[in-house]
Specification:
Elements lengths: L9 E6 L4 E6 L7 E7 L2 E7 L5 E5 L14 E5 L2 E5 L6 E3 L24 E5 L5
């Protein structure tokens, strides 16, 4: 009799502009929540929605300057998947990073969050 084999883990990878970098096991992400990820010197908010889709945006809120976006609330607005900032509650499109509430940030800065390419790839094996 052989021991049962643990299922292989699936890694979430974010593209850093040069290469795909594994950041966390997909199974460790809670549906409907975000987590902060450090990719080099960049802070990224990584989300897994309740349907299992992944999104990666800048972690820094452009209105408050605080690194809090991973703690935002996921939802939708007119069919658009959004995250609401936990600071001032602006909604950002998870697909484009666009702020749906204000065109510009403080003092004319951009109100758009950078979107990072994210995917799943095969993990290194059983946990």
């Amino acid at each position: 009799m052989t021991a049962p084999t643990a299922p292989a883990r699936t890694l979430v990878e974010i593209h850093d502009g040069t290469t795909w970098v594994p950041v966390v096991a997909y199974e460790e992400l809670t549906p409907g929540r975000g987590v902060p990820v450090l990719l080099g010197t960049e802070q990224i908010a990584l989300y897994r929605d309740t349907a299992g889709r992944l999104y990666a945006l800048d972690h820094r809120d452009p209105f408050s300057g605080a690194y809090v976006m991973a703690r935002g609330l996921l939802g939708s607005r007119a069919g658009v998947p959004v995250v609401a900032s936990p600071m001032y509650k602006q909604a950002f499109d998870l697909r484009t990073g666009e702020c749906l509430d204000e065109e510009g940030g403080p003092e004319g800065t951009s109100a758009r969050l950078r979107v990072w390419p994210v995917r799943t790839g095969p993990g290194p094996g059983p946990a």
